[in-house]
Amino acid sequence: MKLFFKLALVTLFSLCAAASALFFSLGFLLSLYAGNPEKTDVIIVLGGDNGLRVRKGAELYNAGYASHVILTGIDERFYSPAHPNWRERRMIALGVPKKAIRVDTQSTTTWEEAVNTADTMEKKGWKSAIVVSDPPHMLRLHQTWNRAFKGTSKTFILVSTKPEWWRPLSWWKNKKSWQFVINEIKKNLFYTVMYY
Prior knowledge:
The chain starts with a helix and ends with a helix. Helices cover about 50% and strands about 10% of the residues. The longest helix is centred in the first third of the chain and has 30 residues, at about 1-30. Strand 2 (about 70), helix 3 and strand 3 form a beta-alpha-beta unit. The chain has about 200 residues and is α/β, with parallel strands linked by helices. It has one domain: 3-Layer(aba) Sandwich (Rossmann fold). It has helices at about 1-30, 50-60, 85-95, 110-125, 140-150, 175-195, and strands spanning about 40-45, 70, 100-105, 130-135, 155-160. The chain has a 5-stranded parallel sheet, with helices on both faces.
């Protein structure tokens, strides 16, 4: 009986240690697929940001990484090409010419952003893309864009912003990164069931 309890205690301890290690490494795991930019045909700046993604996209454009930009996540109900929305205006103010910017008003989810971008790239003859988003979004983007580009010769590189609130090894200490990580865990589980 004593041996059984010792084994149970060791097993419980091992499970707790593994669960703790997984918890503390979630930030690292979620942001693992962020890469370094390379020259591509287009820069995709994903929606849902407060300006960091737009700024990063403009930096990449101005550094010569691509000659085209697609802004996603802009609601068609509130968009008029004659009156650019704040993200488009900010990108123009940061030095990206209006003629270099395409606006995707159809995509409302990460999945739609990937699929619609793949369609646009096909129509334009573009083969490669940089995808810009926040660090904890990288795992889901990696899975989603791989799925959307499967069976094609198109390639993508994930490039993350550098928000002040993001610390991958101590993500739980900041309220914003805590919320982002927990939301991404839920969304990764949902996407695994729905799309992968």
